[in-house]
Amino acid sequence: RLEEFLKKEVDLELSTLPEFEKRVIDFSEVEQLMNSINTIPAPCAPVINPQAPNAATGTSLRVCWGLFSDDTVECYQLCYKPVSNERHSDEQAEHTLKVKETYCTITNLLPNTQYEFWVSASNASGISPPSERAVYVTAPSPPTIKSKKIRSCENAALVCWESRDINPVDSYTVEL
To answer: What Pfam families does the entry give (predicted)?
Structure first.
């Protein structure tokens, strides 16, 4: 029977043409829902730590910060500038570094100078607000001993030096 059926010609013409409605389906709500499931929120503002002891040399500073939340962070943006009473000086320029860790050592700084630091966190959803600003200070340059003014006797010695820093130094330690 199958062989006979397959030999017959079959007329597949439809007597009436189907009419399809042209519908526009709005998937915007579904798309928003799907996007909200897969997105992560922008991070909260990081918290910058105060300067730690021994975190400075005459030309570098180690700055650390952290997060109080479990935010997803791809990188941090560390900004800094020298603290100065003068306005519009070239040294007032802000510097920005992109950092992956929660710490950074900044080099090529001026000795015995205050720098203001702040940091933001970022991920695919956006950038956090900046942290509070923290002031760090580089170590002073070693003083210059005035060789011509050195005097000594049996029980004493007079040693004179001068600071090479523009800003005043709080104290000196003399080692014998």
So the answer is: fn3
Contacts of 58 (CB under 8 A, 6+ apart): 111, 112, 138, 139, 140, 141, 142
Using an 8 Å Cβ cutoff, are 172 and 144 in contact? no
CB 114 within 8 A of CB 136: yes
CB 66 within 8 A of CB 47: yes
pTM of the model: 0.66
CA atoms within 13 A of residue 127's CA, in its CB half-sphere: 9
φ, ψ for residue 161, nearest 5 deg:
-145, 165
Strands 75-82, 114-123: pairing is antiparallel
Fold designation for 47-138: Immunoglobulin-like (2.60.40)
β-strand 126-127 against 144-145: which pairing, if any?
unpaired
Q: What are phi and psi of 136, to 5 degrees?
A: -115, 155
Give tens-digit pLDDT for 92-139.
689 999 999 999 999 999 998 999 999 999 998 889 999 999 999 998
